[in-house]
Each structure stands twice: as C-alpha cells, then as structure tokens.
Hints:
The structure holds 2 protein chains of 2 kinds. By secondary structure, chain A is mainly alpha-helical. Among the domains of chain A are: 421-508, Tetratricopeptide repeat domain (Serine Threonine Protein Phosphatase 5, Tetratricopeptide repeat, Alpha Horseshoe); 514-570. Helices cover 72% and strands 0% of the residues of chain A. Chain A has helices at 8-24, 28-40, 64-72, 74-85, 89-95, 102-123, 141-152, 162-177, 181-194, 199-208, 212-219, 226-238, 244-256, 261-273, 277-290, 298-308, 311-324, 329-341, 345-358, 363-375, 379-392, 397-409, 413-426, 431-443, 447-463, 472-475, 479-491, 495-507, 509-512, 516-531, 535-547, 552-569. The model of chain A is unreliable at 463-474 (pLDDT under 50). Among the domains of chain B are: 7-194, no CATH class; 551-614, no CATH class; 632-757, no CATH class. Helix content of chain B is 73%, strand content 0%. Chain B has 39 helices and no strands. Chain B has helices at 7-20, 26-38, 53-60, 72-82, 86-98, 103-109, 126-140, 143-157, 161-167, 188-199, 208-225, 231-241, 250-261, 265-283, 288-301, 305-322, 325-341, 348-356, 358-368, 372-389, 393-410, 416-429, 433-446, 453-469, 473-481, 485-488, 491-511, 515-527, 533-549, 553-570, 574-590, 594-611, 614-630, 634-642, 645-651, 654-673, 677-701, 704-721, 724-739. The longest helix of chain B is centred in the last third of the chain and has 25 residues, at 677-701. Chain B is elongated, with a radius of gyration of 36 Å. The two termini of chain B are 42 Å apart. Residues 108-114 and 743-757 of chain B have low confidence and may be disordered. Classes of the chains: A mainly alpha, B mainly alpha. Chain A binds chain B through residues 288-293, 311-316, 318-320, 322-324, 326, 335, 338-339, 342, 344, 347, 351, and chain B through 84-88, 90, 94, 139, 143-144, 147, 150, 177-179, 187-189, 192-193. Chain B: Residues 252-341 form the Anaphase-promoting complex subunit domain. Chain B: Residues 738-757 are annotated as: Disordered.
Amino acid sequence: MATELPDIPKLHEALQLATLKCSERCVYQGAKWAAELLTSMAPLPATPTGELPPAYLHPLSTNKTEAALEAQEFSQYLLAKSYFDVKEYDRCSHVLEKCLSRKAVFLHLYSKYIAGEKRKDEASEMVLGPLDGAGTQNKEISYIMSVLQPKVDRKDGEKLSEDESFLAWLYGICLLKQKNETAARDALISSVIAYPYNWSAWQDLASTVDSLQDLNNILQRLPNNIMSNLFVLSTNQELYQTTEPIHSQLTDLLVIFPTSSWLKTQRALLYYHARDFEEADQIFDSLLAVDPYRLDYLDHYSNILYVMERRPKLGFIAQLALTTDRFRPETNCVVGNFYSLKSEHEKAVQCFRRALTLDKTCLSAWTLMGHEYVEMKNTHAAIEAYRRAVDINRKDYRAWYGLGLSYEVLEMHYYALFYFQRAAALRPYDSQMWQAMGQCYDRMNRPSEAIRSFKRALVTLNKSPSTSKDEPEARSFDPQILHQIAIMYEKLRQSKEAAKWMEACMAEEENVGVTTVTGQARMWLARWAFVNQNWARAQELANLLCQDGQEVEEAKALVRDLRSRGLEVA
Amino acid sequence: MSRYLTPGKIALLILVKLYAESRFPNAAVAPVVSFIIKHLVRPKDTSTFILSLDQIKDVTIGQPCTIVGRTLFDLLLSDMWQMDSFDALHTFFTETQDLLRDPEKEEHHGKDGKHVKRRFIGPTSILGCFIRRANLEFAKLQFHETHALWCSFVRFREPTLPAWRKRKSGAGIMSFDVNLKRMSPNDLLVKKVYGGLIESNKEWTVSTDDVERLLEFQVETMQRLGTRVPDETQHQLKQMLDTDVPVSHLRHYVNFLNAWRSGDYPSSFDCLHRYFDYTMHSRDRTFYQYALLNLAILQADFGCHRESVLAMQETINTARENKDMACLNFALSWLYHFHRAHPQDCPDVISSRMERESLQFLKAKAKEWSMDHLLSMAYLSEARQILLAGDAVPSAFESLLRSGHINMTQQIYNAMGSQILLQSTLWSRLGISHMAGLNCTLFLSKYHEGSPSEDLVVALCRSAYIVSMRGRFDEALDRLEQADPEALRSLKIYQYWASYIGLIKLRRAVYRNEFSAANLLLQQLTSSEQVEPDCALEISIARIELQMRTNNYVSAMVHCNQITAELLRDRADSYHRVRLMILKAEIMARSGRPLAGISTAVSAASIAWKARFLPVLFYAFSVLATIMVDLGLFGAGYELLDCIMPQVLECEDAYLTAQCFAVLADSQVGMASKKQGLAKTECLGRALGLIDRAFTEYTRLQDVHSQKIMMSKKIRIHDYLGDKAMRDECVKQYKGVERGPRQGVESGPSPFRERYR
C-alpha cells in the first residue's frame, strides 16, 4: 500500500474532530485511540489567533438538514448522553426513541446495544458456567438490525454520508455478533469509506480478516487514507506477519506519529511474534517509563516476560498494574501470568477468571486460562477455554495449538491434527507447530506425512525471518527433529535414508553439543553399522558411547558383542 | 489488611531459617530462639505485640555467628536485603517450606548440588507450626495483599539501609527492588509503584492476629485479675486500631469488661450484647450460655439481683441442654455464692435447693470432671459455711486445708487469695488477731502477682482494719493509701476500699467523740448503695456505738433490733448475730436495766463459746462483768475477767482491752469498799494500776471521753487516799486531756510501715 505523507495540519484537525465525534457518540475507545494518536504527533506551530478549532465541542453535521435536526434535538441528545455517561443505557435509549437525526439514532441504538451486552453478561453468570457461552445472546440485536437495515443497506452502492458511517459500523457489529461475516465486512468497509477516523470500525473490520488472503482481498476497497495504513499495519501484526516491509511501513508511520505508544507497541508485538523477546522487552520497558499508568497491551508484555522467565520483572509489572487498577482484565492477566510462573496454577486460574468476569472477550485471558488448565491436568476445561478464545478471535494460534495439545493428551489424534493444522496455517514459519503436526501423524501411523511435516519444521527453522543474526539455532538444525525424521524413515523401512538423517543428527553435535538425542542417534548408528557388519565403525561409535551418556549399558553390551565377533573375524 | 503476616513475622522467619541452617553457634541459640518463641506462643506480658526492628536488632546484634567478625544481625540484614524483589519474597516463602523436610532423607534421595548442613525442624514443633502457618497465610493472600505486605516489608527494612550500605558496597537508595536499578527515586515508575510508601502510615505492621493476641491477653488478664485495661495497653490497642486492620469482635468484649469494671452499666450492657451479636454467626449458639452467664454476673454486679438470678437460671438450663459441664458447674457455684450473699433475692425454689444439696453436688461434680479450681472453691465454701453456722472449728480447718492442698498441688494461684483470707478470718474469730494480720501480710507480700486485685484490696482492707483495732488509725489509713491505683480503677473494688476508709475514719471519729464528723461520715457511707455486707454491718455497729455515746439508747436499741431481724431473715453469720446480742445487752446495762441485759449476755456468751467466737465471748464477759459490778457482785466480776485477761490482750483489740481494764478497776474499787485498812488500800492501789492501763488503751484509741472518765476516777481515788500531790498531778493530766486530744501516748513508729509492693 502506498504511503503518502498526508497534510499534517489537516490530519491534526481530522483527528481532533474524530475524537470529538466519537466521544459525542459515546464511542469512548475510539475517541481514546484517536486522541492518543493526535497527541503523539509533533505539535503544530501555534495558530495566530490562538482560538480553538471552529468545530470544537459539538461538531455539527456537514449536511444542512441533518444539522438542523441535530440542533432541534440538542436538549434531548444532551440528556441522553448524560444518562449514558452514568451508565443508564436503557434510559438513554428511551429518551432518544423519537429523534430523527442520525447522531441521535446512533446513540439510541448504540445504548440499546450496550444495554443488551450488559444484560447478556449478567445472564451468562459465572465464567465457564452452564449459562456462559453461545446460548446467551444479546437480545437487542434483532431490533437494532431491523431499524438499521433500511437506513444503511444501499443496494445501489451509493456512498454513505459521514453521519451514517457510525450507523453502518453498528450494523456491522450486529452482523458480526450474528456471525454473518461477509455482510459485516461489507458494512464495515462502507462505514470506514464514509468516515475513516473511527478506529473502532477499523478494529472490527480487522476481526473479520482471517488471513493474508482476506486482507489482500479487501485492500482494494479501502479508502486511500492514513487510517488504512494503520489498519493494514495492525492487521498484519495480528496475522503474525513480521517481514521487513511491515517494519519499514511502521517506521514510516512513526515519522508522522513520533511518540505514539500504540505504534511502538505494534513494533514490540512484531518483535514478539518473531520471537525476539529482548527487543520487545526493551520497547515495552521504555513505554512504561514514559507512561506508567498505561495498562493497554500489558498482558502481552507479561507473556513476553513469562517466556523469558524473568520473574522479578514480571512481579514488578504485576505490582505496577495493580497500583493502577485492580479491576482491569489486563492487570489480572499479568498477575495470573506471574502466578503461573511461580507454579501456583490455582491462583493463576483465579486471576484469569477474574479477568474474564471483567471482560468476557478478553482473548489472552481465555488462552492463558486454557494453558493453566492444561497444567492442572483439567483437559476438558482447557479445551473449553481454548475454544472460547478461538471463538473470539480465530487468529490466536496459541489457542489452536493448545487445543491440539489437549486433544493429544486425550489421545484424540485426528482432532489434534486438525487444530495443529490451523495453528500451522497461522504460523507457517513456526517449527513448533509443524513438529507437533509431525508427531501427530506419527501417532496416527502416517510416517510419510510425518516426514513431510518434520521437514517443514526444519525449513522454517532456517527460513525464520529472525532479525537478530547471532542466534545459533537459526543456522543449525534441531537434532530432535532430525532424529525423528530418521525414525520415521526407519518405520518406512528405508534404513539408508534413516542412517543419513541419523548422521545429520549426530553432526549437529558440533553446534549444540552432546545431547541425549545425539547419543541415541549414535547408538542407532552403531547398531546399524553392526548390522551392516561395519565392525570398525560400530566399535568406534560404541566406544564413544561408553564414555558417557544414557546408553552406557547398551553400548557396553555392544562392545562385548563386538569383541567376541572381532575374535571370530580375526 | 493482614490476617497474620507482618514484616516483623518475616524477620522472625528469617531468623528461624538462619537457625535451621545452623548459621549461628550454640551459645546464641537459646536467647535468639527464645526471643522468636516469645512472639509465637501465648503472651506473658505486653511487650510482645508489636514487633519492631529495634527489638530484633537488640537481640541479634550481640550474638556471634558462624562467619568470623560478623554478628547475627549482619546475617539477618543480608538475608533481608537479599529479598530484592516482589518475586524474591515469594521465593523466600517457598524456600522456607524446605526447612520442614528431613535433611537426612533428602540426602538419601541424592539431592545434587552442594550439601548444606541443616537442622531438622519438626512440622509439629512451635517453629514448625510457625513456618507452616506463615506459608499457609502467605498462600491465602490475594495478589494485592501480597503487594501490600511487600511494600510494608520494604518500609520496615528501610531504616537499616545505612547499616546495609556499610556492609555491602554498591547498595544504594534504590536497592530495595532489583527492578529499579539505574533509576532514581523521582522516576515516574518508582513513584507509581512505591510512591505511597513514604507517606502512608504504619499499615501492616500489625496484623489481625497480633490484635487478637493482645485482646485475648487483655481479656485473660482482666478476667484473672479483675482489673481494668491499663493505660499502656489501651494506648497500644488504639495504635493498632488506627492502622485499619480488621479487628476481631473480641474488642467489644474487652470494651465490655472495661466498662463493667468502671461501673458503666449501660455501656457494658451494650458492649456485651454487641459482642455476642457479632460472634453469633461465627460461633453459633453454642456460646449462648456464656452470653447469659456474663449477663447474669453483670446484672448482679450492678444490683439487679432478680434479673441476674433469672439469667443465671437460663444459663443453667442452656448449659444443661448443650452439656457444657464447665459452664454448668460454674453457674451452679456462682448461684450458690449468690444465694449465700443475697438470700432475700433468690426465689424460694432456688434457695431451698441451694440449702440442701448444692454444695455436695458441686463437690461431686468437680471431682467427677476433675475441675480442681471448682473443687478448691467448693471446699472453701464448705469451710465458710461451717464458720457462718458456727459449727465445729476443726472441720472448718479441715476443709480449709483440703482447699489449700488442692491449690498447692494443682498450682491454682488465683484461688490462693480466697483461701488465705478465709484463714485470716478464722484466726481473728479465734481471737488471734496477730495471726490474722500476719496472714494478710503474707498474702500481700508473696502472692500479689497473679492474684485477682479484688482479693488484694480485700486483704489490704482487712489488715488495715486489724491495725485500726489496735488504735493505730493513722497507720491503717496509711496502709489503705498504698493500694494499687490500677486496681482502684475498678468501681467495685474502689467502693469496697473507700467504704473501709470511711469505716476506719468513722470509728476514729466515734472514739474521739467527734460526733458531727461521725454523723457526716455515716451519712456518706450509708448513702452509697453498693456496700459489701460485712462492711455494712460494721458500719451499723459503729452507728449503734455512736448512738450509745450520745446517750441515745432508744434509737440504739431500735437500730439494734432492726439489724438483728435482718440478720435473722438472711440467716447470716452467727458471729454477727452474737455481736449484736452483746451490743443489746450492753445497751441495756448502760441504760440502767442490767438485769434485763444479763440473760442476753449470758446466752450470747454461751453461743460464742460453743462456736469459739473468742473475741465476742470476751466482749460478752466484759459486759457481764459490768453488769455484775452494777449489781454489786464485785468479786465475781473481777474473777470473771481476771482469768481471761491474757487472752483478751492477745486479741489486740484496744477498745475491748480498755473496757476490760476499766471494769476490773471498777470491781477492785467495789471490793475495796468491803474491806478495811491495808487490804483496802491494796485494792485501791490495784485499781489505780488497772485504771492506768485502761487509760493507756483509751489513749491509743484517742477516746477522750473515756480518758477523762478514767482520770476522774483516778482523781477520786487519790483524793480518797489523801495523796494531794498525786491528785493535783492527775488533775493537770485531766486538763491536758481535755485541752488537746493529741497529747499522751502516741504509738511509735510502726513495724508495719514497710510497703508491700
């Protein structure tokens, strides 16, 4: 996608307006995002008049009739908004029932939607309880849809007005809730075309994108706007694309928004997906130093620290999050991760449950809870947790992978295979997925497929687009995989091929040193040499094995055997 | 908010760990471990509730450790500062669990790595329990609670930073958290996480457990000693409550006890109800009987006797229902004593039952459930009952000894007071007031620790009274002034003490013929409602004496009859009844009806002799002798008294002695009237000697009126004998007596001046 430098003062104004418009319509997350982005830009030189932008406060619609309607319903709107602000959603909705302006209609329906969501949460009761799940629905959606459909659905492809874009967004959300993704995508695209500065709409659009292919498909239909760039960037990040062009795109964007913590976080997440934890850690660290009150994406940071096993740091981050807000899902995820690292899985589950009580759509909490249930050997609960994670976001490869692992524990390999495939599709360059798939094939007695999977795992290891050059694993092969490939060949009774892979496995000793696997490979080779009556080689390998390693006894037996045979040969 | 863990406890845990790892030599083990244990077991004094770093430092800084040149405090410091992050705190607690594993077995398993010499701490030992409890409590903590604990630990450790910097180079102001390296205290992040640290007050330095321990200790002390909350503890408690720890409901109970002792009936009632309201949900109805028990005692203390009996009956019923034998027996014993003290307030059903079998029942039950305290008390009650009924003294002694034996062998220290006091009463009834006084002194000097303060004050009053009987009023009052002011904060005790002071002053005023002062004192004493029965009787007797002195024989007689009737109604102590009989006889004798008095006196004397109420018996004799002298039976009167004089002197009752001497003198004079010549002079000379001795005794009492009578008698005898010089001398003395009451024999420095405490 072409990145052209937009007009900075205009962008400023657009973002200011976006913030105001969003917060006018009580779309607070969007307003927050826009305002953050706004302040991350280099400040404009002071305007000579020093006045506030003309559209300050209630920016009227550009459409004349709309503006007139808005002015007419202004008092009702104000009342409704104040109701919304004190969380009396139904009342807010009721006040605006008869209003006609688009803004009022939006707020009327949006507050209805929020009220429905709230009721749904209340009805679903306990996390993972009997009522929690697909059975409990937002009951307001059908009404909202029936109101919106005539207003938004344009068969003739006519462009929506700016005011209608919010309605289209709401329509898209409702369609999403009904799992009608193509229609939702259309509605959302029409919404962002009509008004590109509503980030919430972009986010919901991103959630409809399941693969790179999808992204490429919709790319043409997106408006030529800086927001599209941001969208593409974040969607790529969510799709685990960590290639160089994305990094450069990010760098370009950072020129416009030099201090944007959101963009920096995207960068950190890119590093995280590329398994470059040090870099990611540093970015997050610097972000925290600037704004210690920021809790967004802290759960991802805690995942990074978890993988790095930096317990003191993770504990500190947990403390930090705690002092900001105990009742944020992010905080609870961080604390849960801390407990998990301390092997206190019950407490960790408790924390994740709390996070989910606060926000049922907290993706990382579902996935992490699944992990904890696996640790606690509660496979069924784990499967359910992973399933919920996947339901919320199909792009979470960890949940797919976790599902596969859980089914493997339950010895349901065919199921497991499916999930591993999904995980591998999301992370085609992650050897772990392929390995797991290979093992699964192995269990199902399909060695040739297993070999292909393992070989793929080897390839990914080498082709991994890792930015740091000094990682030793990047250049070498994992002896474990080599060994497994060899065993697969053995199963296929292709001993020569197997021996070749065993040799390769043994050769890895140069890189990774002597391990159990290479020892096993050596033993295998020794025995193979023995069978092929290559006594000298067998002797040599067995003697090496006798020095140390796990197979000492076996090796000694082999040596004895060799000796006796050696006498015969002599 | 903390249930159990505090930074101090963490420091203790570190010390336990150091001990388990044998990081200090054997010489240091005893002081350090006993310091640790002092803070874990039931508290003995008030010093163990708030554990500060200074206390730990004081104990550890002098102790050597296995590293040469370092003290134990250094080790503690380094261990404390090695906990350099929130995570390290977790790790520390996890590691302490290893201390409970047997190192021998671990070796068997072949634990790789270096071998650490370690003591084995048994999981059931005090230290083991402490480690387990601490771990459990730590596991129970929510994340934010753990965070708060960590922050308070950081604050707790803060003052040792200079010491730690001396020992470790590179330690800086931010070394309390390893994550804060290369940061300054003004960094946003640091302020965010530890910002509130500096300003916030001492939250978390105490835990609920600490407060509960303090409260329990306080309740125990109050119940054992019957005192109020000392100011120091109250201060500590307030300090603890200021830190917003969730405090157990025991606080209400302490408030209740405090209010009760201070005589604040409404608030004690309120607090008691509040306490039981709050504890109902946690302890169920099983404690209902205790609530009732407390209520009954409370009501009795504030004079609502009928209510109290009803409550106690309910207690007994509930205790029976719940098969709570301890409570039941206590309630029965209490009811028994209550019945003894206030028979008129008990319903007939109870009193009839109490009369017959209750004591036997109590004794049997106490034996059955091996409740030594109750058994000892039952024996004491038995002895008391024997005394009251005027039965055989040896059996009273037997019961007393039984009780004493139980107290000694079972180490029931707080029953010692009642036993010794009863013994003292017994001695004084046998007329050996020296022994009685000695018993009181013994109790005061040897058992004042761990005895209820009520007993102490009673003993003090008793001993002061005995001293006052010898005429040493100032010394008696002096002694009373020495009462522990802490004990006097309790209303009941104060009233008892104050009425004794009033009584002694009253008697002094009566003897000194200061009638207006005496009347005022009487008014004051009788106006207060809560007066112990024995004290009230003494006051009544003093009133009769006063009335006799003012020659108001009619009202004295009326009064006397009235009290006798009351005593009869209450089936009270026969000792007192006899005393009143004698008083009546004396009134009759004084009012010129000696013949009417003689039968009363004789019957009183016979009862007194049967029950061995020796001082009363002597008193009866003196009255009888007076009557005989009045009837002209001088010889018989003289004989009657002369033979008991040694024992009378032993009684050390100055008034009795003086009266006896006066009667003796009178009878000698009477005898002289029947003799002639030398024998007559001899008799008169003897009379003069006796008058002198009576005068001395009266002087002790500062009884001006009697002194004057004695002098005038002496003047007349000298006049009769014609000894003018002596007569003039006596006249001068008489005038001297009349002029100033302070003249004459002043008791020298008393041997009882030493302080008890």
